Task: structure prediction
Amino acid sequence: MQGVNIPKHVGIIMDGNGRWATARGQKRSFGHKEGSANVDKIVTHAFKRGVKALTLYAFSAENWARPKEEVDGLMKLLKDYLKKFAKKLYKSDVRLIVIGGREQLSNDLVKQIEEVEKKSENNKSAVLNIAINYGGRQEIVACVNKLIALNKEITVESISENLYTAVSGEVDLIIRTGGELRLSNFLLYQGAYSELYFTDVLWPDFNEEQFDKALSEFGQRKRRFGKV
Ligand code: FPP
Result:
């Protein structure tokens, strides 16, 4: 990957767990389990490549409409992931931040989130944002309401500085696995000038090599930010 311009902040829409499981005659929850196991692999690899912030779309504000069994399974996987992350924190310099509304999450999960965030808050080498109960529109509305409550002026900058991802800034590259060509309410404000990379590969099959392919393609894009 020498000579490739590495994006500072990468967002990933991890789609395709359900189809991956169905294709194997298994329940959708099996796909989420495999997808969850894949998270560690890609997170480690992305930071090794020099990415400084990674935002993963784990559960959207709209995902509550899925069957209860599937929602409960996903919540458990997220809690387990955070627990495991907290245990390994002593040998990691990654800061973990959970983005999205917390009101609908269980007390248990919120406690786990707060613990990992607090324990990792001084870590400096990279930031891992996990989007849980997240929606880009909801984020913008919450942010504007916060600014109004603080009696602050609403500007492009004041919004940027008060989004959940304020620490990580704009997202340079958004990767979506699973073949759909849309953003599904992910990082709408931060992604105004993101490069988009879509692949048919389903999330549990998305490996280091495919991540590198996305980085290489990003390296070839000419980013003009509306200028000539
Ligand atoms: C989309 O696949 C994926 C999700 C809604 C959940 C993503 C969650 C994980 C990868 C596991 C947990 C995450 C972490 C950070 C530990 P889909 O179910 O919509 O798949 P389909 O489009 O094939 O139905």
Residues 14-19, 28, 32, 35-36, 39, 56, 58, 63, 74, 77-78, 81, 130, 178, 203 surround farnesyl diphosphate (CB under 6 Å). The chain has a mean pLDDT of 96. The two ends are 28 Å apart (CA to CA).
